């Protein structure tokens, strides 16, 4: 709002306040509220202005707009609270699952590194025994170069961006710390040339030694390690990103620790992007002090496959995304060098938008619970029967809103593929199809692994409504990932087919219609495999003919497996956004997600300046968009006045318009009501010309900083140019 002078309280109020004389309580008055009559006068003196042509915001489908409009009810605040609680519960589960999945992916690597660290520690401690004086002496023990080598684990990250690996190294440190190791995490900021080797030593002491002095002294660390509770445990130093460290400082740090390694068993764990990073960064005399061992993290695609399976494929959270959103998030993931962090950020924002926009979204947390679905059905039938007395049921107002929303969703579901006239059938089919849909995608992924097809690609294709409606002979369907999986299933060897059917049997346990077929096919494959083993024991003269028979048998079994997979795809792989009541769990507005992630800041600034009253919602500023109030913020007033001009704005005309708008507050003032207090209040003097000019200059500078105008040039010093015209 526009700056206003701080108004002093009446003298009577100051005199009555005897307890707060010594307490300074600063406060700010942003603007003064005008009476309602003045607002009506201001509304009457409206001047016509030409608005800037803003592009339409992210388009919403008519169905979405109707759903949002229908959610407004007499108890809308409580209803929003339900959606907020549902979002908190849903994202808490998703976030916990993501952390567990990423930890599970690296669990084998963590165990391998821990075993290596124990073996390296025992090798360091296996030297000749030292006496107590040598152990407690504050200087290193002299030995040959071979004994001064530090065990170092070079962990190959395979990532172009390091944001994902930061969390991985933190989890690795916590895992090793839980096993009894002393852990110190050093970053590239600790190895900067400005602080030298003293900076990394101080950081090392702060993490290991309690109440450590601010000194870069190795004797302090040595004395700490000789204490009984710290002895006989390895000291592991984790450097998450070796490439970002200063090579000279890191080399000095390695040389220093190598002098103490026989007394202070130090082990390095370093993250590297390539195998030759250490050779490029460190000199040869520092490299000879490192006894390197190589480890490899899982690739970003492996982590992404595990994340997509746990969060998007398995229906455990009551939230999912549509085809366009899935394709956008896949491109967003690949465009950010395959960082899981970028994908999780996009997923969280999609979850936020879904629960804030969709009225039925709070039902998603219970959609897979059969008991909760039965409860909603009972409430729906009861309220349908009691429709004539709804206005008396004030205690069940939230359930009434649910009733109306479910009824409208049922009407909108008429356009869906599996539309139902009955609410019970619609919710029941949604719950069953979600589980079947998940099982079929996992079966497709098991086949796609043989062809190196990623789960995210299969998921994007499974959510595509256009592919589900194509004819089986369509060439586009044959080139799809599903078509490639069917072709791959016909060519699998018998041993791979047996393993594949075992995995299918696990994925289809809850899909009774398919599970029996898989079990039957398993028995056929195993019997044919046993027959082949018996035939291999026959005499050599019949070996060739029997191998041909085995080949024909395997081909027939592969054909049955491919036919079963094709049956599962056509019957159960229906896109989520084609299901009835998909609004409850599916977010598909990709325009809003793209705008929130990538953004259009200049356009958002323009909208905020032109519609500031809709955000501030104060009583003194007029709520009508075409009215300029003197109590509005100066920058907002200036930008609205600029809409009357073209590309060039005359500073004189602009200033006079701003001045007349600001000074109109004196004309709009209404007489105060007569009261004893009003006689003691002095009317504030009118604002000076210098103050108005200062406010004008400040608003112009703010518009320039926002990138909306360009300051005057030497050729036309009295004009400013609009930079963002037409946005």
TrEMBL record:
Residues 602-725 form the Origin recognition complex subunit 3 winged helix C-terminal domain. Belongs to the ORC3 family. This is Origin recognition complex subunit. One of its GO terms (cellular component) is nuclear origin of replication recognition complex. Residues 38-74 are annotated as: Disordered. One of its GO terms (biological process) is DNA replication initiation. Keywords: DNA replication, DNA-binding, Nucleus. The keyword Phosphoprotein does not apply. Its main location: nucleus. One of its GO terms (molecular function) is DNA replication origin binding. Residues 60-363 form the Origin recognition complex subunit 3 N-terminal domain. It is found in: Nucleus. InterPro entries: ORC3, ORC3_N, ORC_WH_C.
